[in-house]
Amino acid sequence: MAEPPMRSRERRASVLVEPLGGSVHLHHVVKNFDDLAEHVLFAPSNLERPLNNAEYKGRSQKPAVRRDFLLQNVAAPPSLSCAAAPNKTLGDASDFVKVRHNGRRLDRAAPRGLRAWALSHLGAFVSSAPLCRGGVVFTTGSRLRSRPKEFYVHLRDTLRGMEPEAGHYLERLAQLAFGGVEAVSA
């Protein structure tokens, strides 16, 4: 006889793998807001692809960077962590804008610039917070619920489009967006 399915409130962990260009993380949070797992991991579906950004250009960066971060933390998930760019903070990228990604023109964010977008859509910008890269984020259901559900609905709706520039902002701001100001300020 098969075991009965685990009741949702007994879930201890959610692992969500997002296809490139999607807003699956935000959809998951909105859809399951009242029933989020104790530990939540967001990861891109392309963990094996190398990162192709300025922090890694000219180095022999291997595709395993994100996968290794994931494996180091999955046994004992932290309450909030991301695959961060080495020795970089949000303050280092406050004027970041992105026009193209993999040769494709992006749908422009409003407002443009990482800091301006964060202040407008997240309500805060913490210069000392880590600059997240690679799309791997650990958080908790309680941290996600520290903001109202409408916050995530707004972000999800902001990221609608084929190639939103705002998605690249959200990736870099992951700890602030999915952990809250108090978590990254501590």
Structure description:
There is one protein chain. The protein is of the alpha+beta class and 186 residues long. The chain has one domain. It has helices at 24-31, 64-74, 114-121, 141-144, 149-158, 165-172, 174-179, 181-185; strands spanning 13-18, 39-44, 81-89, 100-101, 104-105, 130-140. Strands 1-2-6-3 form a 4-stranded mixed beta sheet. It has a two-stranded antiparallel sheet with strand order 4-5. Helix 1 runs antiparallel to helix 5. The protein starts with 12 loop residues before the first strand and ends with a helix. Mean pLDDT is 78; it is low at 1-10 and 53-63.
Task: Annotate the secondary structure layout.
Elements: E1 13-18, H1 24-31, E2 39-44, H2 64-74, E3 81-89, E4 100-101, E5 104-105, H3 114-121, E6 130-140, H4 141-144, H5 149-158, H6 165-172, H7 174-179, H8 181-185
Parallel strand pairs: 1-2
Antiparallel strand pairs: 2-6, 3-6, 4-5
Q: Helix amount, in percent?
A: 25-40%
Q: In order across it, which strands form the biggest sheet?
A: 1-2-6-3
**How many strand units?**
6
What is the strand content?
Answer: 15-25%
Helix and strand run: EHEHEEEHEHHHHH
| Global mean pLDDT | 78
| Largest pleated sheet | 4 strands, mixed
What spatial form do the alpha-carbon principal axes imply?
A: globular
Roughly how many Å apart are the termini? 49 Å
Class by helix and strand content? alpha+beta
Helical run tally: 8
Question: How many structural domains are formed by the residues?
Answer: 1
Give unreliable regions as ranges.
Answer: 1-10, 53-63
**CA-based gyration radius:** 16 Å
